Amino acid sequence: MIPKITVKKRLFPFVAFIFIVTGCMFQKPDYLKSIDAAELNRVMTNEDIFLVDVHMPEQRHIKGTDLFVPYNGVEKYLAKLPEDKNTAIYLYCESGPMGNAAARSLYDLGYRNLFNLEGGAKAWREKGFEFE
Predict the structure, then answer these.
(1) Considering its fold, how many domains does the chain have in total?
(2) Rounded to two decimals, what is the model's pTM?
(3) Is residue 73 included in any domain, yes or no?
């Protein structure tokens, strides 16, 4: 019979490894920057940006949106995306995850200056900012 303490000592490194590995899967990727609604509004007021709604199904767009691209079909819209792969592209969906998925596709296509609106259109709405 193996004492309970020995079993716990043997399982601890395995359990710790699982927590570390699964925790890393949920970290924000290094190729994507997050931006909150207030900061995006400030940037939009002071700069001409490329803003893309990637939510499916299509929703009401934030005022100033340049393009609607389904998050799962980004590669079909290459002709409508900036030619310069270093152009800042600001993405949003309803709450965030579809923006993350679209950013991954854009990164795979060579785009390197990607932003995702934290909380998506929902956060934008909560701040009282305009929609089209």
Answers:
(1) 1
(2) 0.78
(3) yes
